Amino acid sequence: MPFGKRVVLIGNDLPAVELAEFFAKRRRTVYLLTSEDRLLPEVGRKRRAEHMDKLDQNRVCVITGVDIQQLGSKQAVYVPQGSAECFTLTVDSVIVAGDAAPDLSLANRLQEAGMAVHSIGDCRGYGLIVKAVREGAEVACGL
């Protein structure tokens, strides 16, 4: 992988948390920073607890409630909210886990070429695996 042994991720949603788990399972030291007070606002209590357990088991350092002051290719500088003290994480890789956005461009091009297309999952809008599986089953049953 083109990422070093120490990785900082910026984000608090499911893509950020799953990416943190991915790197941690590959023996990376992972820091997950967010300005929010909690992780995974888009999932239920049970799933949040499962992910929090995985983060703990994989020794991901979760730091919530911070103001990111500076990001570079090898460092993240942050200040805990309500504090004046600045902290610097020196790492090998900095990743900003952005929001998932729908993208129907391929489906549209295939439809314009006359192909039958059934768009499911995140290409239509952010959702969880349950939504994608349900949509896939509905399409498969309709074929």
**CATH H level of the largest domain: which superfamily?**
FAD/NAD(P)-binding domain
Number of E-type strands: 7
- Helix percent reads 25-40%
Strand content: 15-25%
Explained architecture:
With 143 residues, the protein is of the alpha/beta class. The N and C termini lie far apart (39 Å). The chain has helices at 14-25, 45-57, 105-112, 129-142, and strands at residues 6-10, 29-33, 61-63, 66-71, 75-80, 87-90, 93-96. The protein folds into two domains: 6-96, FAD/NAD(P)-binding domain (3-Layer(bba) Sandwich); 105-142, no CATH class. The model has no long low-confidence stretch (mean pLDDT 92). Strand 2 (29-33), helix 2 and strand 3 form a beta-alpha-beta unit. It has four helices and seven strands. A four-stranded parallel β-sheet has the order 3-2-1-7, with helices on one face. Strands 4-5-6 form a three-stranded antiparallel β-sheet, with no helix packed on it.
List the helices and strands and how they pair.
Elements (H helix, E strand, L loop, with lengths): L5 E5 L3 H12 L3 E5 L11 H13 L3 E3 L2 E6 L3 E6 L6 E4 L2 E4 L8 H8 L16 H14 L1
Parallel strand pairs: 1-2, 1-7, 2-3
Antiparallel strand pairs: 4-5, 5-6
Short characterization:
33% of the residues lie in helices and 23% in strands. The protein has 143 residues and is of the alpha/beta class.
List keywords for this structure.
2 domains, four-stranded parallel sheet, 7 strands, FAD/NAD(P)-binding domain, three-stranded antiparallel sheet, alpha/beta
